[in-house]
Amino acid sequence: MKRILFSIALITGVASFYAFCGFYVAKADTKLFNKTSQVIIVRNGDKNTITMSSDFQGEVKDFAMVVPVPVVLQEKDIKVVDRLLFDKLDAYSAPRLVEYYDQNPCWNYAYDDVAIAVVPSSRQENAGMKTMEMEQKKDYKVTIEAKYNVGEYDVLILSAKESNGLEMWLTDNGYKIPEGAKEVLDPYIKNNMKFFVVKVNMEQHKAAGSVPLRPLQISFESPRFMLPIRLGMANANGPQDMIVHAFSKSGRIETTNYRTALVPTNYNVPLFVREEFGEFYRDLYNRAWKREGKNVVFLEYAWDVSLNAGMKCDPCVGPPPMFAEFQQAGVDWLVANQWGGVTGQAYYTRLHVTYDRVNFPQDLMFQETPNKQNYQARYVLTNPATGEFDCEEGQKYVRDLGQRRWNEMWTYQWLTGRDIEKHRSYPAEYNRYLKGKKADQGSIAPPVNFTPATSESQQTPFSAYLMTIATTALIVFALTRKK
């Protein structure tokens, strides 16, 4: 069976993408909105490494970022990394479209397997920052705990006693704070969080050739495994969208304070999806997001990507992470051995979350799980066989093909909510090969009891297994009590 596979970059094809952990602040009346964001989180014991990248729209000189952190970061804990790291991870783990070819049952030979990967286009980087004066002229109850220069960035670590003071400090230094920021800042201050404040050093930026801003990476020790998303909603223009690339030693990473749901996957879809895959997945994701109540985190990819592991995807749409990329992301437990190999286990989870203030009132809390089941967002095209269908098996194949295509159409409608009226001729395309009585043209409306069939069984998040075990235990306990 011959196969060709495709992939999309979520940046260009899925919903509207906006913020990550922190909010952006802008001088004067500059209108800033956080767009497409991707975050890499690595968990090793209590060590957390977070790499942040976001598409900032505006002048580089107007860029600033504020992110809450649990401790005062040291200079060695802050790095800049290559933007290509995000591009490679996104290309590798993105939802994929795989294409297969049927064999003509009247022929006695098969096609060889062929796989061609089309890597999704990368996003354009835009970022910027306005230079600010960090002098404390009033009693804001704000303390500059540390000050560093890291690559093209000037970094401050702030602590504050009250949200009013921090808001005034930022405002008096020439930055327009998003409406509602004070209320969002307050819980972090009450929890004794610090604030990682970043701006662009224009001299360093120009000396580097005014290249696009690089992602920032921070590392710290904390028993709390979380991402602070509430600040990212302070200047949000609608729901925010974020991709989380997560790495651990043990297995999948899932959220604990919101449900981790499986994005619909492994469905057979019509051939015309090939020409509209970005829009198809956007509508599929948005429909699933609404169906799940707009307050879930979706799993899009999960796999053991240890360098000594075998297959790391099925199909693969890009090269898997290599040792240098693991190191750059902060996966520091992998060790190169003297034989040129690498020892250590690494498990990669891709999570996709669309959030707003109403449905996500809390920051994202995570857990490592022992669940190592493979998972990926994957959609299947199956091309009909070619040639004549004169044999008995060929005539049956054509009749079955019409029904299969109706199932693909109904599945497409169920996944995306799209109208299929304009594709009415799709299921009957091969009826011309039938002899005698033609196959039924079928109906646009699916059967009342229609349920889309997946190509493979979907696998359950670890949290769902725990819920099942807990429910079973309660039932057993109740029966025991009755006795």
How do you describe this structure in short?
With 483 residues, this protein is an alpha+beta fold.
Q: How would you characterize this protein structure?
A:
With 483 residues, the protein is of the alpha+beta class. The chain has one domain (3-379). Helices cover 22% and strands 26% of the residues. The chain has nine helices and 25 strands. The chain has helices at residues 10-13, 84-93, 163-172, 181-190, 202-207, 277-291, 323-329, 392-416, 462-482, and strands at 3-7, 23-24, 26-27, 37-44, 47-54, 64-69, 78-80, 96-101, 142-150, 153-160, 175-176, 194-200, 216-221, 226-227, 240-248, 253-255, 259-262, 267-268, 296-304, 335-336, 342-343, 347-355, 364-368, 375-376, 378-383. Strands 4, 5, 7, 13, 15, 17, 19, 22 and 24 form a nine-stranded mixed sheet that branches. Strands 2-6-12-10-9 form a five-stranded antiparallel sheet. Strand 9 (142-150) and strand 10 form a beta hairpin. It is elongated and about 90 Å long. The N and C termini lie far apart (58 Å). 41% of the residues are buried.
